[in-house]
Write a structure and sequence with these properties.
It is a single chain. By secondary structure, the protein is α+β, with helices and mostly antiparallel strands. The chain has one domain. Helix content is 32%, strand content 11%. The chain has a six-stranded mixed β-sheet with strand order 1-2-4-3-5-6. The longest helix has 19 residues. GO terms for molecular function: zinc ion binding.
Length: 152
C-alpha cells in the first residue's frame, strides 16, 4: 500500500506514482476509489487480489462532484466526468495518463456508451463537439435505450 499525506492507495507493489505490479508504465499513474469500499486501488486486479469482496461499478448518477479518480503524480482528485473528459492528461499537472485505460472503463464506471466511444479513441467532446456534457450523457442514455430496445 502506498501511503501519502492524504491518501492510501492499495495494491500489489504500489509505487510512488500509483503504478502497481500489473500496470507500471510511466503513464499508469491513476488510482480509482472503488464504489464498494470507498478505497483507492491502483487497478482492478489489485482490488480483486486484496479487497476480499466483489467490485461495484460507479453508477452514472454518482459521477458528479465526488472525487473518484486520483492522479498519482500530483495527487489531484477528479470526478468521473472530469476524468473521462480530460483527454488522458491530468487537468492539474498535465501528466499523461495511459490511453489504454479506456478499455477498462466498464470495470469501474456504469455507462457503457462512454466506454465504447472511449475504446475507439474518442472523447465526449470529439463525438458531439461543443454540446454540454449533460447533453452528451443524455445522448448516451438514449443510445443505450435504443440498443436495448432493438435487442428485444
Amino acid at each position: 500500500m502506498l501511503v501519502t499525506s492524504n491518501f492510501n492507495v492499495h495494491g500489489i507493489d504500489v509505487r510512488p506514482h500509483t503504478q502497481c505490479a500489473h500496470w507500471h508504465s510511466s503513464r499508469d499513474i491513476i488510482a480509482i476509489r472503488h464504489k464498494c469500499c470507498g478505497e483507492y486501488y491502483a487497478c482492478i486486479s489489485c482490488h480483486e487480489a486484496l479487497a476480499g469482496h466483489k467490485n461495484q461499478v460507479w453508477p452514472k448518477d454518482e459521477w458528479g462532484p465526488s472525487n473518484i479518480v486520483l492522479c498519482g503524480k500530483c495527487l489531484c482528485e477528479m470526478s468521473v466526468v472530469q476524468y473521462l473528459g480530460c483527454d488522458n492528461h491530468c487537468p492539474s499537472c498535465k501528466a499523461e495518463f495511459n490511453p489504454g485505460c479506456r478499455n477498462h472503463y466498464h470495470l469501474y464506471f456504469e455507462d457503457k456508451m462512454v466506454s465504447r466511444s472511449a475504446r475507439y479513441g474518442k472523447s465526449a467532446e470529439s463525438i458531439l463537439g461543443s454540446v454540454s456534457r449533460s447533453s452528451f450523457f443524455e445522448f448516451c442514455q438514449l443510445q443505450s435505450n435504443n440498443i436495448v430496445s432493438s435487442q428485444l
